[in-house]
Amino acid sequence: MLDWSRLTLAIANPTCATCAGSGTRRAAGDPCSCVLRAIFRIVHGRARAIAYEGGRLNAPRCSPSHSYGRPGEEFRADFQLVSTRALADHPLEAAVFQRHYIDGHEWRESCRLIRCAKGEFFHAVYRLQQLLGRAFAETLPYALYPVAEYFAGVVTVAPKPAAAQILRMPWPRHIARYIAPRAPAALIPPLKAA
Ligand SMILES: [Zn+2]
Q: What is the pLDDT of residue 131?
């Protein structure tokens, strides 16, 4: 279960009429829709930047697991995959997502292609942003939001109980010898046996 309190406050809309900027609804810490839509905009913005800027954002890199890959390309692929899955039971929202956010048509052209009214289109945009904002934050093991954690290879599965008891990882041995506290030196030299 995702701890939403960690994600909500910083991106909540301070003028939101529902949460007044707190980012949570009254019901048991559920995130406000302004937070879900903000998550969608952030993740979509990054996927679009990778598609348009390519090069720098999509350079091959060695991941923390020491495998080489193109994290930008993987992010874009995950963005599409997670979106397709999350909208599988929402045909209108899936069509709007494809025409407007993937193919890049502006709203009038999207409405014409999907054959829906302006009001329907914008209501679908509103709903798909909330559905996908939640999916981007809750996908395991690599959530797309927070974006910085995705690129750092942070795994979002809850730690096992035993792992949670480890308060601090020990230093590797070749480093530990420089920083571990040394035993105090003896003040008296060892005496020879008589
Ligand atoms: Zn809100």
A: 97
pTM comes to 0.72
pLDDT for 153 = 72
Given this model, what pLDDT does residue 60 score? 59
Enumerate residues with CB within 5 Å of ligand 1 (an ion). Answer: 16, 18-19, 32, 34
How far away, in angstroms, is 177 Cα from ligand 1 center?
A: 51
What is the CA(27)–ligand 1 centre distance, in A?
13
Ligand 1 centre from 145 Cα, in Å? Answer: 18
HEC assignment per residue over the chain: CCCCHHHHHHHCCCCCCCCCCCCECCCCCCECHHHHHHHHHHHHHHHHHHHHHCHHHHCCEECCCCCEECHHHHHHHHHHHHHHHHCCCCHHHHHHHHHHHHCCCCHHHHHHHHCCCHHHHHHHHHHHHHHHHHHHHHCCCCCCCCHHHHHCCCCCCCCCHHHHCCCCCCCCHHHHHHHCCCCCCCCCCCCCCC
